[in-house]
Amino acid sequence: MKKLIFLILFGFFTVNSYSTETVAEMPLVGNGSQQTPYEINTLAHLRWLSETNSVWDNYFIQTSDIDLAETETWNSGEGWMPIGSDFSNRN
After folding, report:
1. pLDDT tens for residues 78-87?
2. What is the pLDDT of residue 88?
3. Are 40 and 64 in contact (CB under 8 A)?
4. Contact (Cβ atoms closer than 8 angstroms) between residue 59 and residue 31
5. Contact assessment for residue 25 and residue 45, using Cβ atoms and an 8 Å cutoff
6. Where exactly are the structural domains of the chain?
7. Would you state the pLDDT for residue 64?
8. Which of 24, 38, 72, 81 could disulfide-link 30, Cβ–Cβ 3.0 to 4.6 Å?
9. Is 64:41 a contact under the CB 8 Å cutoff?
10. What is the reported pLDDT for 51?
11. How much is the pTM?
12. CB atoms near residue 46 (< 10 Å)
């Protein structure tokens, strides 16, 4: 029973955390250096970047167009949270 509950919760949070993309699709290309920046090419990558302030001092490059249309309902209907925003102080 515990395993079933875990799998249900894991599936729910995996799907809702990064749209339909999986954690395996997070920025694994590049190492964050100026010579080999992390490559951001999906909404999941961009969201990961915006929510992971521990990597903000690294280098990144956007390698494709990213459609943010689905973010309209995020953050209680306020939409996309700009990178560098403090989630706790949002008005």
Report:
1. 888 888 755 5
2. 54
3. no
4. no
5. yes
6. 21-68
7. 93
8. 38
9. yes
10. 82
11. 0.61
12. 20
